[in-house]
Design goal:
The structure is a single chain. The chain has about 375 residues and is of the alpha/beta class. The protein contains twelve helices and eleven strands. Helix 6 links the parallel strand 4 and strand 5. Helix 1 packs antiparallel against helix 8, helix 3 packs across helix 4 and helix 3 packs across helix 7. It is globular and about 70 Å long. The chain starts with about 20 loop residues before the first helix and ends with a helix. The structure holds pyridoxal-5'-phosphate. Pyridoxal-5'-phosphate binds next to helix 3 and helix 4.
Length: about 375
């Protein structure tokens, strides 16, 4: 196999690459010509189309997935001193949002196969102060919502879903992720299944919560209030019409982009099958369907991940440790005194996981090159 120099950037296979084309350009140009760049008609149009796509009664467009999670937690009533049970194996935002409301993120360990919050571990972490469960559909694999719904049958316990990585995923009972009625936040950063550059959406089933989120994303203004009249605390978490116009076009492309991601994932399974000790993302099971977001492998135990990444880089392949355990990040250690050993499944997975290049339109040749490079590095 030819060794590719890191200088040869043209041959480096990137981690992610969004699919954007002339339709997005035309949609943006139309918004620019209209002069209505924000608070215009594209926002509700995008919300409606998105809600229909996931089968939710309502949707609220917001400026990011984080903003969506924050407003969703506020909407279900999380506040001072409450506890929110969530996964330590996630992007840091899913825990941070509890802190925004002076609530405490309480971690529970993950399932070693799906890498999602383990319902039994979550059940063991429930206390009198628990106000919400915040499962994360990590890497696009649906969290076990039926189990969390049984747990949340206790009055006063709400569910907010972090669906930022899971557009296109479906639960075993046929309901799309985001379509169960609990507030579910999606993210539209550039590496996501659908992108608006930055952006997000909360889907939900309760109209009163929609009204509250719509108001709080817009500085606390009620829909019927005049300009600069505010009846509650709010934020500027709005999504622009420019972003919404891109989102509308991306929604039209979504099925194709999801199918393309699934094809790339299948090609990876074949390309990596022979590498001994390498863990692959779990296959869909019991009727759950993953919405492919990233392709993250688990390196064989004892492998030096940094050295593996460097060697891959020398072969023209980008990779990234993904994800680190949240409770062991310096801020969380200092603030809450977390220590290694608290969530052993999460820590083992976080130590070994490596994201490989993954995006729709990635050629089979590129997948094979990554497979050959990883095989050479791990077995050479
Ligand atoms: C699991 C998860 N939660 C939350 C977020 C936050 O989304 P955003 O970056 O749009 O604020 C992300 C985005 O990377 C994510 O992957």
């Amino acid at each position: 196999m030819a060794v590719v120099s890191t200088q040869d950037t043209a041959r480096v296979i990137p981690l992610a690459r969004p699919v954007l084309g002339e339709e997005e350009e035309a949609a943006v140009a139309e918004v620019l010509r209209s002069g209505q760049l924000s608070l215009g008609p594209r926002v509700p149009a995008f919300e409606q189309a998105f809600a229909e796509r996931v089968g939710a009664p309502f949707a609220c467009a917001v400026s990011s997935g984080t903003a969506g999670l924050h407003l969703a937690l506020r909407a279900v009533g999380v506040s001072d001193g409450d506890e929110v049970i969530t996964s330590p194996f996630s992007f840091v935002a899913s825990a941070n949002v509890a802190l925004y409301e002076r609530a405490r993120p309480v971690f529970a360990d993950i399932d070693p196969v799906t890498l999602n919050l383990d319902p039994a571990a979550a059940a063991a972490a429930v206390t009198e102060r628990t106000r919400a469960l915040l499962p994360v559909h990590i890497f696009g694999y649906p969290a076990d919502l039926p189990a969390f719904e049984a747990l949340a049958a206790r009055p006063g316990l709400a569910i907010v879903e972090d669906a930022c990585e899971a557009l296109g995923a479906r639960h075993r009972d046929g309901v799309a992720v985001g379509g169960r009625g609990h507030p579910a936040a999606f993210g539209f950063y550039a590496n996501k299944q659908l992108t608006t550059g930055e952006g997000g959406m909360v889907t939900l089933g309760d109209e009163a919560l929609k009204v509250r989120i719509d108001s709080e994303r817009n500085q606390g203004r009620a829909p019927d209030m005049g300009w600069l009249d505010h009846d509650r605390l709010g934020f500027n978490y709005r999504l622009s019409d420019i972003a919404s116009a891109i989102g509308l076009v991306q929604l039209q492309r979504l099925e194709g982009m999801l199918a393309s991601r699934a094809r790339v994932a299948a090609a990876y399974r074949e390309a990596l099958a022979g590498i001994e000790g390498l863990g692959l993302p779990c296959e869909d099971r019991d009727g759950d369907v993953r919405g492919w977001f990233v392709f993250v492998v688990q390196l064989p135990r004892g492998r030096d991940r940094d050295a593996t990444m460097l060697a891959l880089r020398e072969l023209g392949v980008q990779s990234k440790p993904y994800l680190p355990a949240i409770h062991l990040m310096s801020f969380y250690r200092e603030r809450f005194g977390h220590r290694p050993g608290e969530f052993p499944v999460c820590e083992d997975v976080a130590d070994r996981s490596l994201a490989l290049p993954f995006f729709p339109g990635m050629s089979e040749g590129a997948v094979e090159r990554v497979g050959e490079a990883l095989g050479a590095v791990l077995q050479g």
